[in-house]
Amino acid sequence: MPLIMAETGVIQFIKKINGKDDIKQFLKNLGFIEGSEVIIISQIQGNVIVKIKETRIAISKTMASKIIVR
Predict the structure, then answer these.
(1) What is the pLDDT of residues 11-64, one digit of tens each?
(2) Residue 47: which of 67, 34, 30, 63 has the closest Cα?
(3) Could you tell me where the beta strands, DSSP code E, fall in the chain?
(4) Is the pTM for the entire model greater than 0.90?
């Protein structure tokens, strides 16, 4: 399921990242790597604040929809 649909406060693991190579590289540089643990902290108007590798990052609804979690 896309990260945007995940429940707030629940640990998820990144299964896959969809999109073009530049989007994949951008997310990888932020720490979104397959197998990494990610937790949604909050959602505001579709945008998402997540915790990944002990860092809080805000990403857009579009970017969150490209991250597939399990």
Answers:
(1) 999 999 999 999 999 999 999 999 999 999 999 998 999 999 999 999 999 999
(2) 63
(3) 11-17, 37-44, 47-52, 55-59, 67-69
(4) yes
